[in-house]
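S1.2 Input.
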Amino acid sequence: MISFTMKNKSFFLACLIIFNNFIHFSAFALKNNITIAGSTTIMPVSEKWAKSFKEKTGVNVNVHGGGSTSGIKATKIGTADIGASSRELNKSEKENLNQIVIGKDALAIIVNKTNPIENVTIDEARAIFTGRINNWSVVGGPNKPIQVVNRESGSGTRDLFTEIIMYITLADKTKKVVPMSLRSVVNNSNAEVKESVKLMPNSVGYISVGYLDSSVKALKINSIGSTSENIYSGKYPLVRNLYYLFKEDKNKNLKEFLAYVLSKEGQSLVKKEGFLPVQ
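S1.3 Output.
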């Protein structure tokens, strides 16, 4: 049988106190961390906000993707403190959630930079993404088959594209969504779509303007480009608000983080990431 001396007991008690303090500190740290989940469109600027906020306050802000719908669900069940959504919430999703607009964004229809096409109408875009137009020659391009690149179901980017491009008005004035081409390549983020279009010469996709760079070409829609001026004026058709969602919370860090996001400095990071500030 092992016998504890007074010295052994003191050492054991000290270890127990240290362990309990560690557990308490870890629980406190986790409680005071902030978790963001949702839209992959918003991820880059969320990561910039998280880094800057930690430098200022020491508070960790953990940023995850998963899509707008996943972020909304995570916030409602409490696995995320903030849900990031690049689409409007429906009535049931809004229940017990607060939302703030953190920036503005627009979608760009993109093609490979070797494609000579510069412009499509909304009707042409709809026909291309349904597969009714399946060759670039129909819209003034080369005699090449079109490869559609789409986003996954639940993506806020896809929802906005569907809402503006894929709805048609019937004779009785009701609206109907027309299905996307079943031959679409489906990607799970803006970055993946951009990479697919970059690598496939005959492809077409859609991404947030915040992801645009010289590796792909953005088409004009109805002869209107996705410039800041056209987006703010309402001339460009594929525009949306970007949202953060959260429950009523007494977490001081969460309130301070949201205030930072909407501050002049926070909104300057929105602009640096290619989005449009709310102020």
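S1.4 Remarks. The CA atoms of residues 36 and 63 lie 5 Å apart.
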